[in-house]
Amino acid sequence: MKFLLVDDSRTMRNIWKKVITSMGDNETIDAGDGAEGLKVFLEQGPFDILLVDWNMPNMDGLTMIKKIREADKSTPIIMVTTEAEKPRIIEAIKAGVNNYLVKPFSPDALLSKIQETVKKTEAVS
Amino acid sequence: MGKRKEYRKEGEIEKAFESAIKKVLRIMIGVHPQFGPPRPVAAISASAPLSVQVNFSEGAVGVMVLGLDQDTAAHLTEAFCCESLEIGSADFIDAISEITNMIAGNAKRNFPQGARISRPRVRIGADLEAGPLSKRPGVHLDCWTELGDLAVEYDVRFEPEDSQEETDYEVSTCG
Amino acid sequence: MPVTESKLFRIQISHDRLTATLSVNGDSLPPACTAGKIEAEIQPFKLFLNEEGRANIIAFAAKLAEHAMPQPMVIAQGDPPVHDENGQIELLYKTSQGDAATGEAQEDSPQSFYERSNIQRVRAGQPLLRLIPPREGQDGRDIFGKPIARKRGRQAQLSLGANVRLEDDVVYATANGKLEYSGERVSVSDVLEIAGNVDFSIGNIDFDGSVIVARNVLDLFKIRSHASVTVRGIIEAAEVQAEGDLTCQGGMTGKEKGLFIAGGTIETKYITNATVRAGKDVVVRMEVVNCDLICRGALRIESGLLVGGRTVATGGLRVRTLGSEACVNTPVEVGIDDNLRQTYLRVAPEIEQLRRKAEKVRQIVEPLLRNQKALNAEQKEKATELLYNSYDLEDRAEQKIEQLRSVQEESRQYCLEEVVVLGEVYPGVTFRFPRLEGIIESPLKGPIKFIPRKVEGVYQIVAVDCLSGSCFSIHSGPTSDTWLQAAEALLSGKS
C-alpha cells in the first residue's frame, strides 16, 4: 500500500513509518505541512491511505483535507492529532476524515486504526 | 463563571496535567512517571537547563513549561525516537517539542472549554534573562521517571478577566 | 428592722430600706392628730412619701380620731433594683438525640440503639456556642428617695481550647472531631478516647480523627475512623473501618460477622472467622483462622498459624505454620492484586460494551456518509454526530483501559510472589501465583520458600529450603483463573 504521511514533526512521521513498515511491504511518502501534503497528493497520487496531523504551519491538516476532498472523495484519511474536543472532531468528520486517532497513541492503536480503515475501504470497493 | 472557579478549586488542572504527563510518557516513551505534590511558585520561568514552553489561548489562557536537564532530555528523546539524538539538533528539538505538545494537548482536553496551544518553544540552557514567563503565581509539578527527573510548571486560568491580562503570549497552533 | 421614733410615732424601716411602716410609739393611744400633724411629726425622717403613703397616713389619723389603736401601716415604699442577668452560653449544636439547647428530640433520630452515639461530632466551621452578653437591669430607689444600685451582670466565662475560634460572640470548630464542652471550656479533639467498651453506652462511632478504645468492641457495633483505630482489648463480631492503621492489642473474633478494614496496616494478636481487608500489611502474632483476608501488602504471622478461609496477600506471605495436620483446605494467593482483579472484572465488560456500541454505530453511519449525496442537510448533520459518538465511545473505552493500566502500574509496587513458611506446611494448602497454582501434597518442614520459577523451560512453583538452598518443584501448573492474562491482553491491545 502507498501511504502519504503529513505531519510537521519528523519524529512523529518516523513513528508512523515504523508502524506501517511493521504491517508489511508498504510505501510511504511524507510531507511537513498541509501545503506540501496537498502538492504531493496531487502530484504523486494516488495513495491508498493518508495520515494527517491537524495543526501544522503553512496549511493545516483540516484545510488540506477539505481541498483533497474537492477532488477525491474516496481515499481514506486518518487524522492523528492532539485535538480531541468534540467540535474539532465534528469539524474533521465534516471535512471528510474517515478515522480519527488522538495523540498519544500506542503502535497497536495506530495499527488497528489503519487496519480498520483499510478493511472498510476494501469492503466498500 | 462559577463553574470555572469551582473547577479551579477542585485541583482539576493539576489532575489534567498529571494525567497528560503520565499518559504521554507511558504510551509514547514507555516510562512510568511518579509525581510529587503540586506546589505553588511565584512565577513561571525557564530556569531549567532545558525548557519547552507552550502557551494556551482561547478556552484557557496561560503557559506551561516543561523543564528538565539535558541528560534526561537526551534519554527521553532517545526512547521516543528509538535513536540517539544530538542535543540541539533539529531532530532533537522536533522530538522534545512533540513530547511537550502532546502533554499540553492532552491536558487541555480536560479543560472545561478546551483551548488552543501554541507551537512549542525550546530553550537550551537556563534562560534566566528571559525573566518570568508569567507574571502570576503558578504551579510546579515534580515528576520522576526511570529516565530522569523533570518538572512541569503552569499557570492556566479560565476567567475572562484573566485573559485580558495575558496578551503577551505568542500563539500559533501546533499538534 | 431599724426603728426610728418620734415622741408619738414609730417608723419601722425594712432592712432593704424599701418599706417604712408607721405605728404608734408605745402602748398608749396618743391624742388624736391630723394627717398633717403626723406628716410633720415624721418629717425629720425625710421619708419619700408617695400618694399611697399619704393615703395611709390619712387612714392612720382617722383611726386615731376614732380613739382606736391603728394597725401599723406602710407609708413609704421604694423601688427594688432589677439586677443584671449574667451572660449565658447558648448551645448551637445538635446532639444525636436532638437539639442541645432546647432538648427537643430530633425527628429523624436513628431508631437503632446501636446508632445512638453519645459522642458529639462536629465539623470544621460548624458554630458550636453563642456567648450571650449580660442583660442590663435597673437601679432601685429606697424610701428616702436614694438610689439602690443594681447588681452588675457577669460575662459568661468560657475558655477556648484546641480547634475552636471565637468570632462575633460565636465559637466555631476549626477542625472535624469530638466536641468537648464542660460549661467553662470548649475544645474539639481529633482523638476520640473511649474509656471502656464500645457498647450501648457509647453506640456506633463515626469519627474523623483517630479512635482509641480502652477495652473491647462488642458484637455488632461499628467504628469508622478517617484516621487510625486502636483497640486495647478485643474486637468481637463488629465492623471496624480505619482509613489509616487498625491496631487491636487483644485479638479479633469475627464470629463470621466481623468486618475489619484498614487503609493502612492491621496489627493484632489473632483473627478468627472474619472478613479482613488491608491496604498495606497484616501483621498477626498468633493465628489467622477461617478468615476471608485480602491485603495489598504482606501477611506476616511469623510466630503463628494460618489455616482455612481464603487469603490474598499481594505482597507475599511469611508464616510459621501454614495449614493444619487435619489437611484443612487453605487456599493462599500471593503476588495477585485483588484491586487489579476487581477493576478488571468491572471494566472489561464495560470496555467490550462500549466498543461493540461504537462498532455498531459506525457500521450504520459510515455507508451513509460515503453516499452523502443521498442525504439532506439534517441527515448529514445527524450522521456526523453519530460518527462522532462512535469515536467518543471508543475514546471512553480507551479511558477505561487507561484506568485499568493505572491500577496495574500501581500494583507493581505491591506485588511479591513469595511464600515463606518458617515452621510446617501441610496438605490442604493450595498456592496461587499470578500465572501458576499448586498444591501441597505432603507435610513439609521449613524454613522453606515457595516461588514461581522456570524449570527446564516450564514455569513451576519451586520450594527452596532456606537452610540448605536445595530446591524442588511442588505439584503445580498454569492457573485456572485466567483473568490476569485477559487483563494483560486487554492492556496490550491484543483483545
Estimate percent helicity of chain A.
40-55%
Task: Characterize the largest beta sheet of chain C: strand count, sense, and whether it forms a barrel.
Answer: 23 strands, mixed
> Helicity level of chain C, as a percent range?
10-25%
Largest interface: A-B, 26 and 26 residues
Strand segment tally of chain A:
5
Q: Tell me the fraction of residues in β-strands of chain C, as a range.
A: 35-45%
* Mean of residue pLDDT values of chain C: 89
Based on CA inertia axes, which overall geometry of chain C fits? elongated
Gap from first CA to last CA of chain A:
15 Å
Average of pLDDT of chain A:
90
* SS class of chain A: alpha/beta
Q: What's the quaternary structure here?
A: heterotrimer
Q: How many distinct beta strands of chain C?
A: 39
Describe what is shown at a glance.
Chain A is an alpha/beta fold and 125 residues long. Chain A is built from five helices and five strands.
What features would you describe in this structure?
The complex is a heterotrimer of chains A (125), B (175) and C (495). With 125 residues, chain A is of the alpha/beta class. In chain A, 51% of the residues lie in helices and 18% in strands. Chain A has helices spanning 10-23, 34-44, 61-71, 86-95, 107-124, and strands at residues 2-6, 27-31, 49-52, 77-81, 99-102. The longest helix of chain A has 18 residues, at 107-124. The mean pLDDT of chain A is 90. In chain B, 37% of the residues lie in helices and 26% in strands. Chain B contains 5 helices and 8 strands. Chain B has helices at 2-9, 12-29, 70-81, 90-109, 160-165; strands spanning 34-35, 39-41, 50-57, 61-68, 116-117, 121-124, 138-145, 148-157. In chain B, a hairpin with a 3-residue loop joins strand 3 and strand 4 (61-68). By secondary structure, chain C is of the alpha/beta class. Chain C has 5 helices and 39 strands. Chain C has a 23-stranded mixed beta sheet that branches. A 4-stranded antiparallel beta sheet of chain C has the order 1-2-3-4. In chain C, strand 15 and strand 16 (185-189) form a beta hairpin. At the A-B interface, helix 1 of A face helix 2 and helix 4 of B.
